[in-house]
Amino acid sequence: MKNIFPLTIVVLLFTTLSASAQTAELDSTKVALSISVDQITIFPNPTTGIMFLSNEAHYKVLSIVGKPLAESYGKEIDLTRFENGYYFLEITRNGKTVTKKIVKK
After folding, report:
1. Residues 29-38: what's their mean pLDDT?
2. Are 45 and 3 in a shared domain?
3. What does residue 8 show for φ and ψ, rounded to 5 degrees?
4. pTM (two decimals)
């Protein structure tokens, strides 16, 4: 009986690890698809022209008083045609919106 018990534990551990690996793989897929808008980072900020979002999203560049200046979808934001100064970046993903301050130098 002592010889069978350790073998049973090994088999159960293997089964558990295998199931966990599959779950982790599925969970990482879910996480990639459900990144919330407040988890998106903007870099570099301040910028001299081109900024990037860590994940694709719909975005609007707004003046400091809230006037829409540009709008697009993606990861790259081209601010080269904008004057140096402060702007707001409104990012929308999965129906949720967050506004962040950005600086063009």
Report:
1. 63
2. no
3. -60, -40
4. 0.67
For residues 45 and 21, state if they share a domain: no
- CB-CB contact of 45 with 19 (8 Å): no
Strands (E) in 5-49, as ranges, are 42-43
* b/e sequence 39-74, b meaning 16+ C-beta within 10 Å: ebebeeeebeeebebeeebebbbbeeeeeeeeeeee
How far is residue 66's CA from residue 88's CA, in Å, rounded to a whole number? 7
Query: Which domain range does residue 4 map to?
Result: 1-34
Same domain, 83 and 57: yes
For residues 55 and 79, membership in a common domain is answered with yes
Q: Give the confidence band of 2 by pLDDT, cuts at 50, 70, 90.
A: low
Q: Which of 55, 31, 33 is nearest to 43 (CA)?
A: 55
For residue 63, give the 3-state DSSP assignment: coil
CATH code of residue 54 = 2.60.40.10
